[in-house]
Design a protein that fits this description.
Mean pLDDT: 84
Strand content: over 45%
Number of domains: 1
Largest sheet: 13 strands, antiparallel
Helix content: 10-25%
CATH topology: Porin
Strand order of the largest sheet: 1-2-3-4-5-6-7-8-9-10-11-12-13
CATH class: Mainly Beta
Structural class: alpha+beta
Radius of gyration: 20 Å
Distance between the termini: 47 Å
C-alpha cells in the first residue's frame, strides 16, 4: 500500500468522527435568546428573523420588518439577521451566524421566505451555505405552520367555523419543519422538527412542546411563557437529551417602543 493510500485511509477513518462532532454543534445551536429560553422549541412561536433557522414558515407570521442581533457569550456576537415584511404575501429573511467562537465553529449564511397560504396556513423554504474550516456544503429546509387567526369580519358575521373560535384562533400553533437537507451527498443529516403551542388566555401562560427527530439522537423540548404586561414577558424551558442529561433555561423580554430586548440563561445538568 502506498503512502498516499495510507493517508487516504486515515482521512476516511477520521472524517465520520469529525462530522459527528461538528454536526452536534449545528443541531445544538440556538440563534436568539428567546428560542434558547424556551428550551429550543423554536419550530413554533419564534416570529423574528431567526425563524429562518427554526421554521421558515414562521416568517409569514411577521407583521413588520425586523432586524435582530444576538450575543451568546459576553461581547461576542454570533448572529445577525433581517426580515423584510411583504404585506399579504409573507416575509423574506437573511441570516448570518456562527455556532461558537472556537476554531471548529460552523459558519452559516441563510436566505429564505415564508408564504401565507390563507388566514390559517403558512409555508416557507430556506437555503443555507455552511462552512467548517476548509469544508463547505449547502442545505435546504422546508417548513409548515398552522396558526389560526381571528378575523373581525368572521366575528361580526359569527362565521369561520371552529378555527375562528376564541378557543383556537390566536391561541393554537402547530409547526413542522425539515431542516439541514444536504443538496449533495454529505455526512450531515437532515433534522425533522415537530412542535405545538397553546395559550391558556390572552396573557398566557403559553405552553410549547417540540420534538426533534434525528438519526443520531431525538430530543424533546418544553417551554412556557407568560406576558406579564404589554411590554414585559417571562419564559422558561427545558431540553431533554437522554436519561443522563437535561438542559434548563429561563429568560425575559422587554419591549421599548420599536426595540425588543431578550435575555436568557441555560445550564446543562447531569442527572446521574
Amino acid at each position: 500500500m502506498t503512502k498516499r493510500t495510507h493517508i487516504l485511509a486515515l482521512l476516511l477513518f477520521l472524517l465520520p468522527s469529525l462530522s459527528a462532532f461538528s454536526q452536534r454543534r449545528l443541531l445544538e445551536f440556538a440563534p436568539g435568546p428567546k428560542s434558547l429560553g424556551l428550551g429550543q422549541s423554536g419550530v413554533v412561536d419564534v416570529y423574528d428573523p431567526s425563524a429562518l433557522y427554526w421554521n421558515p414558515a414562521s416568517l409569514a407570521a411577521l407583521r413588520s420588518s425586523q432586524g435582530m442581533v444576538a450575543v451568546h457569550d459576553p461581547f461576542l456576537m454570533n448572529y445577525v439577521g433581517y426580515a423584510q415584511y411583504l404585506p399579504m404575501r409573507g416575509a423574506f429573511a437573511v441570516n448570518f451566524a456562527k455556532t461558537d467562537q472556537t476554531k471548529d465553529a460552523i459558519k452559516i449564511a441563510s436566505f429564505g421566505m415564508g408564504f401565507r397560504l390563507g388566514r390559517h396556513f403558512q409555508t416557507g423554504v430556506s437555503l443555507s451555505g455552511l462552512s467548517l474550516r476548509d469544508e463547505g456544503w449547502t442545505t435546504v429546509g422546508v417548513g409548515f405552520l398552522f396558526k389560526p387567526e381571528s378575523s373581525p369580519v368572521a366575528a361580526i358575521n359569527k362565521a369561520g367555523g371552529i378555527l375562528s373560535s376564541r378557543f383556537i384562533a390566536d391561541r393554537l400553533a402547530i409547526g413542522l419543519c425539515v431542516q439541514n437537507i444536504p443538496l449533495v451527498v454529505s455526512d450531515y443529516d437532515h433534522q425533522i422538527r415537530l412542535g405545538a403551542s397553546y395559550s391558556i388566555s390572552k396573557f398566557g401562560p403559553k405552553i410549547t412542546y417540540a420534538h426533534h427527530f434525528h438519526r443520531d439522537k431525538d430530543t424533546s423540548h418544553y417551554g412556557i411563557s407568560v406576558l406579564a404586561s404589554e411590554h414585559f414577558n417571562l419564559f422558561a424551558g427545558a431540553e431533554y437529551y437522554d436519561a443522563d442529561s437535561l438542559s434548563f433555561a429561563f429568560g425575559a423580554g422587554l419591549k421599548i417602543s420599536n426595540l425588543v430586548f431578550n435575555m436568557a440563561y441555560d445550564r446543562l445538568m447531569t442527572l446521574n
